[in-house]
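Field: COMPLEX_INPUT
Field: COMPONENT_COUNT = five
Field: RESIDUE_TOTAL = 1598
Field: MODE = joint
Values follow.
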Amino acid sequence: MTAAADALEVEHLFAGYDRADVLIDVSIAARAGEITCILGSNGSGKTTLVRSILGLTPPRRGRVVFGGVDITGLPTHRVIALGMACIPEGRKVFPKLTIEENLRLGAYREADEVTIRKRLRDVHGIFPRLGERRTQLAGTMSGGEQAMLSIGRGLMGGPRMLLIDEPSLGLSPLFVAQNFDVIRRVNEQGVTVLLVEQNAHQTLAIAHRGYVLSKGRVVAEGSASALRDNEEVRRAYFG
Amino acid sequence: MDAGVLAQYVFNGVMLGVIYAMVAVGFTLFFGVLDVIQFAHGDVVMAGAFVGLATYVALHVLGVAAPAVVVFAVACAAGLGMALVGAVIARWLILPLRAAPAFNTLLVTLMLGSILRELVRLFYPNGSNPQPFPRLLPSASVNLGHFTLRLDTTILIIAGLVMIVAVNLVVRRTRLGLAIRAVAQDSETARVMGIDFERVVLVTFAIGSALAGFAGVVYGLYYNEVNFDIGLLLGVIGFSAAVVGGLGSIYGAILGGFLFAALQTVGSVALPVSSAYNNVFAFAVVIVLMTWKPTGLIAERASERV
Amino acid sequence: MQRYLSFACALVLACATLLAPGADAKETVKIVFIGPLTGGNAALGLGGRNSADLAVQLHNADAKAKYTFDLVKYDDQCKPDIGVQVATKAGADSSIIAGITHYCSAVAIATVDTYHKFGLPVIVWGAVLPAITYGNDYPEIHRVNGTMINQNEVNAKLVTGLGYKTWVIIHDTTDYGKGHDEYFTKYLTQDGGKVLADFGVGADQQDFTAILTKVKELNPDVVYFGGLTPIGVRLRSQMDKLGIKSQFEGTSGIVSDSYIQALGPLAEGTIAFIDGAPIEKLPGGKFFLEQYAAHKYAEPPEAYGAYAFVAANLVMDTIEKVGPNRKAVTAALAATKDYPSIVGPVTFDAHGQNIVPIVTAYVVQDGKWVVWQDSDYAKGKRKLAGGK
Amino acid sequence: MTGSAATRGAARSHSGDLLVATAAVAAIGAWLWAFLATDSVGVLAGLLAFAAAAFVFGRRAAPRYRRALAARPRMATSLGVLTVCVVAVALHDQPYPLLMLCTVLLFVVACIGLDIQTGHCGLVNFAGAAFFGTGAYTAAILAAHGVPDPAVIFAGGVVAAAAGSLLILPVLRTRGYYAALVTIAFGILFSTFLEVNDSLGGPQGLKLHGIDFFGWRFNRDVNLGWTTASFYVNYVVLSLALAAGAFVFARRIERSWLGLAFDAVRLDEIAAATFGIGVGRAKIIAFTLGNFLCGVAGSVYAMMQGFIAPNNFTFGESLILVSILILGGIGNPLGILPAALIIIVVPQKLQFIQEYRFLLYGVLVVLILLFRPEGLLPRRIRDYFPGSGA
Amino acid sequence: MTAAADTMDGPAREAAAAPLLACAGLTMRFGGLVALDALDLHVAQGEILGLIGPNGSGKTTFFNVLTGLYRASGGRIAFAGRDITGLAPQAVYRAGIARTFQRSRLCLPLTVFDNVMIGNHLRLSHGACFNVFRRGALRRQYDEAVGAARSLAATFNAQLAARLFDAAGTLDMIDRRRVEICRALVNTPRLLLLDEPSAGMTRGETRELMDDILQVRAARPALTIVIIEHEMNVIERMTQRCVVLNYGSKIAEGPFRAVAADRGVQEAYLGQAVA
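Field: COMPLEX_OUTPUT
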């Protein structure tokens, strides 16, 4: 896999609900093997971007290409089958399923039990607490634990690419640091990551490249180090 | 009350509860994945019984007589036939109406129920009349005072329970069941996990309807008689059981089924007034229960639809 | 297949009657049949319709007849309000001269006013509640079948005569079941029988085990059932499930082929009563059954088919006699006396009720309804439950 | 174009539209007459095909003419009433179509009641037949005790509303399917109770006399001077008055602050509560008014039929009422009339296929709903005082 | 309304006066989750307070508890000197607190006028007899209400006033927001709660809407506003004071510039600065 190839390309995307356009002419690219981040405050269209890529909110115009395959408007399960995984905003664990069941859902497209077992072990290695409490219902866990579960579930599919939507949402700084560390380690194992975040500092610390989204448009892009000093980023949050 | 008589009430009540629970589980499964009520479900039970009956007649003509084979074939035909019917209903009548008001699904399935009923009545030979359902199970019995323990009823109770447990196991323990539960809790996130939503819906309707088909056969084997209009009341009771138990919960449906059987039994034998009031009693208790627990005994979540 | 054919035929016939109004030399007279053709009581309604239809066809085939009859068929769904609607439709249609109407008693009671208002003479072919004829003084209303009164009188006499002492009565909560309950209790008590308990059950109820468990505890000599075949079948079969050994007897509502078909050997020994002479024994009755079979109707005639047949014949014969005029037909029907029919002679009293109280007792023997007097049971060759 | 010219032009086209709309109503009346009167399969098929075609092709032009009528609500109502009167006169010597017309009109009254509950306030009610039946039985009992008939009709509604108050608590506490179950349970309980309880006639039902309005006997044929009309004309007039009254009543409720509160409760209970609307109060009012109308319709129906029995008021009959509602388009009282024609009259018109008619009818309704999921005439935007130019 | 406005016009006097809204130890728990953690907060009469904080910090929960949609697990709420803890939503509205919702909760099938009138419900006669039989009186009330709604809508813009009888669902996002605000204002509340008024709008639309709100405010100087917002320039422009929430408790309070410079606030938003 060459590092320069684009694993995911979003070209001139327009998307929205009802009548209003939430995304306006958004083009981004995530290079294979890298962590690409999308920064922006609430309401800037980050989540809509994720939904459009996944086919949950079909784009009005534009194109999404994943690993050379045009996935624009493809049903979600087909997109996932191509090797994408998503850690959705707000964790979205299944509250009435156990931790283990949640994890197994992450590997839903994987039929081989041996592989699933191996991945379970891997996830338990990363988050030992998930291994200790397999049969606990996810809904009874604390926010931080649910975040772990959500990440673990995303890894269970053995994805080529991981879409992560606001992993820091509502978490204490300690958890945020821990989760970002996990994301970095996962990426080091060769998984391409598209990280959508509001938490700019920590995100840029682990990302390679980034885009800044504001009111549905890309207002800045560049390498992480360049963005770190970019005034546009601060402006996107604090006006 | 004599212990034997009491045991007899309980035994009969359990048989009845098993049938109701089998019907109620379907309602609750459908509601789980799609938030709809399939009001033709009772008539699917009836259709299952008739498919079983037709299979029996066909085997009889073909000269297959071994009871075990016949029972197996009859149950399979009913189960598979209704699975197909369920999937067809979901695909052509329920999914297309997802965007429409929930009321429409209701009216369409109600009408579908009467269509199924009329089809059987008109096109099954002599369909307006009660049909004899063959006695395929050994009818040995033991008398213990006032209590008669029949082998065939025992087999049916066990078979019914096994079916319910099997469906529950499918839902609780298999990959498919995991997908069903995931869709029931959060269909969008389930899709993000790579689950094909439509397929899961169709399969769920197939499973619930297959269970209804089996319920039809159990019904036939227990009462040895089926009629084209048994589905109406079975549907209402199954729906009531599922709702009283708490829509979306399999355990709730089972609880509701047995509760309804218990209410009817108590209503028939323990009330100071005529036993004809048993349904008045049962439904009055249902209203009180709903007032007390507005989202069912095992509340999964509130239904905002309809 | 035959079903589709008959469906097609119905359509074609309907169209044909529209497009080609009688190019016949004979005058065509319309009469109406009303009964439940859809819903839970459709089996009996369809049997009645076929029988009335058979009567009309046979009549029309008769070259000596003055009129050709056209039988209009309406469905009352066994619902009083629908009954009033179709009765109004028939009554208001002046080309319809007379009717053969209603199986369900509540419907028949609901419609008598309508027939009276329109002066349409009708003969009830199946409904059994006394009030239909005795509840009014309308000259238009007649009935060929007996009321539940005669039936239960004969019933009580016969069974107490067999030596049974105790009864449990189960009846459905429709007018039919409740009426039978009332009259049977009355006559049974007169004849010295003892009613241990009386249970009402819903007409669509499926499970009776709770009630039957109680019955088992009471251990009566006889279980009497007032109701129709579907529940009768369920009751009898569930009695067996619970090991109840009492004798089972019923009313005209269970005298049907499907009762025996549905129960198989369990039906053996069931006693039931029906108003009228035993059809098989009368020459006309045999003819009726043969012709019915020959016309290949999809449904059997059922218990009241013969009455519909008789009612249709009586109507047509009266019209042949006095001409297609409602008033004349009403007057002529009132004078019916000893009209020979396959259910015995028909004579109407002042209320239009057939007073020839022939009630036939039947018992199931070897998978057939056999007239009691001819059965092995009456002759003592076989024993009913309880060794009687 | 100058302002005044534009106004004049608008006024001219307005009156032109009104003429066309009136003609359309007349055409609907003629259609209704033919539909009720015909007994011929060919004519029936032709009429249904014509209606479907008019529905499909007239859809684009209809709003313009509908607006013209809507601008004169009083005239529109009178025109509707007049049309039905003309139809009734045209059918004066045919009791059967008149009876069907009465039945349809009385079901319209009951369905308007349900519509206030369901279409406006969002309360599901699967016990419509039970409240209809309460009215009917009230009429049977009171009339037998010599209460004057106008009072009987009113009492039917009051008792039905009172019976509904038994269900108020569960109805307020439950929602959606859970509320549906409460009403289903009540509906079944009601008809079973009537059947097993002999004090109200039991399964054999009760007989009633015809309506007597201060000496005017409804069950007597009416002498119109040149001809004698069937006595059902009396009932048509009464049912029509009730239906028109219920229609105006429902419209006025809808076009008022109360109707607005109902809508708010139906669409968003939380927002309604946040802005001070008494959610419970709105539900109680809607439920009671709806049941009142059902009861009134039931009492007139009972006296017209002259006989009532429990199996006229089963769960199945409740479903018929709900079906009319859904098919007509929930929330629009105008849609109820065509829907009631389809649900009540079409099965009777299909008598010629005898036992096959329910099959055909079921398929017909399913097809309509698949192709027209919002019902025949979906609800429109509220206009409090149409034609006022506000 | 006017009496209050007359006596209190200077910001200095407002601050000195007893607060219009005072919450003490307000706590809201959902199962194991603590959404509001012993929150103390006060709002002075006539002030515009900004309520900010990262996603999930409990801002909307605070509104829901305040308006009676949730019942607080602990703590007290005093409004205009009156304890309103645990009152039903209807009673809270009657007391003079109105709100908008983050996700527009307009009744989309209803007209703009109808939606505004939902807010005006307390002033309309809603007896059944009045509504059905006294159409003339209703007509007068209606004409009055139309006038009021039209002039209220016209404070935003004339186009909106012209679309008074269009279904709310046909409006675009910004107009829907305006209608929501009209609905909240029509009953002349003392306290207006705005929950992310800029959500789902472009920057230009946001600016337009804020102008509108300021204009409304200029017309009603006594109106107290609490505004939840993510758009910091909105907060900066609109508010004199802000409260920053994180994990359901207050982490900072003061003028926006000071708060935005606060290290704790920066970390709450941007995460810990990583060396």
